[in-house]
Amino acid sequence: MNRFENRVRRLQVLMSEKDVGGVMIRNVYSFRYFTGVGWWQPALFIPVSGDPTIFAFEDEVDELKDGTWIENVLGYRKVEELMKGVVSVIKSSGAETLGFDLDIDSSALLYQQFLHMHAEKKVIDAHGMIMELRMIKDEEEVSMIRKASEIAGESLKAALNTVKPGLTETEVAGEAVYTARKMGSESVHIYVNSGGPRIHAHPRNKRIGSQDTVMIDVMPSYGGYYSDKADTICLGSVSDEKKRALQAFSNAVNACASKLKPGLNMEELESEAYRIYGEHGVAQYYVQGFSHGVGLRFEEDPITTIIVAHRRMRIKEGMVLNLGHAPLSGKPIGVVKKEETYLIREGGAVKLT
Question: How far apart are CA 114 and CA 120, in angstroms?
């Protein structure tokens, strides 16, 4: 049994325990996790027993069959055929309670369509079940994240070396993206912020000023798996406030890294970071969400910035976590952060970036 089929069988055990007759997946991340294939606009149905079914545009069926262990690949040419195929397969499965993988990037439209197509059935969110598996990485997954981490380091270095007054944020981002793509990255997410603070700093055609704080965050993928690394530089004369923020953030990442181990509560990392910010007199710039998971998505469970309940999660061996996600942010300092990615082992953390 290959590792992708093994993941399906493990999910089916969880489904059986929760009386879920089938799970529908419409996002690229979980689709890749169970099939071994990266595919755009995927559709995968996993019954509580037996083999899964993939639904694909008919011209793509042969390529999908060549890339995956799953034999049941049904083709369609019109969306009506896709919908009829899904309804037919689910009806044949006998499932009364269905799960839908409500990933953070899941389409509300596709979910609403699914509810309408199966109005007579109970539909639950299956994302938690799936993430029980996805949060713990096997060695093959770790090897992909290690390569993505290597790419993250080189692409961040390329971007940082480019920064100078007069360049635009998009030009700086371009250096990181070019480097990452040349090294084999399939997808690159990047934030660049100069000047005034922005939390979600998608690059703009804004020119960098001579006194700006410049934050760069690169998230490249390799083999479908991401890493996450960020750094901050200050141009011109650097104020004492900015110096304290930079030092505080670096100290917080290092202190939290030394505490990373199985059993630790995510809230304990948050508290440690906040304590260090207070010691340096920069707690007023604190934004909650110091750590998150990394894997098939650059930010995946536990997502402490968005899902409050995830702040109470306990760390497990085999997780890959980022430290330094939420920045210090304020008008006097701009946006300051330094991010690193770590693998959790029994005895502590291994730095990947």
Answer: 11
Residue 93 sits at the vertex; the CA angle it makes with 21 and 54, to the nearest 5 degrees, is: 95
Report yes or no: 303 and 293 within 8 Å, Cβ to Cβ.
Answer: yes
Dist. CA 353–CA 340, nearest whole Å? 6
- Domain's final residue, options 85, 103, 134: 134
Cβ atoms of residues 220 and 187 within 8 Å? yes
Global confidence as pTM: 0.94
Which residues is 340 bridged to in the sheet? 323
Angle at which helix 28-35 crosses helix 3-17, to 10 degrees, equals: 110
How many domains, in total, are found in the chain? 2
Give the chain's length. Answer: 353
Clarify whether residues 102 and 231 are in a common domain. no
Q: How many CA atoms lie within 13 A of 154 on its CB side?
A: 16
What separation in angstroms does the CA of 71 have from each of 2, 62, 88, 91, 221? 14, 11, 17, 19, 27
Instruction: Based on the fold, state whether residues 130 and 144 are members of the same structural domain.
Output: no
What was the pLDDT predicted at 107?
A: 87
The domain of 219 spans 139-351
124 with 155, same domain: the answer is: no
- pLDDT tens-digit series, residues 231-256: 999 999 999 999 999 999 999 999 99
> CB-based burial of residue 296 (10 Å sphere; 0-12 exposed, 13-18 middle, 19+ buried)?
buried
Q: Is residue 131 pLDDT above 90, yes or no?
A: yes
Last residue of a domain, one of 71, 104, 134: 134
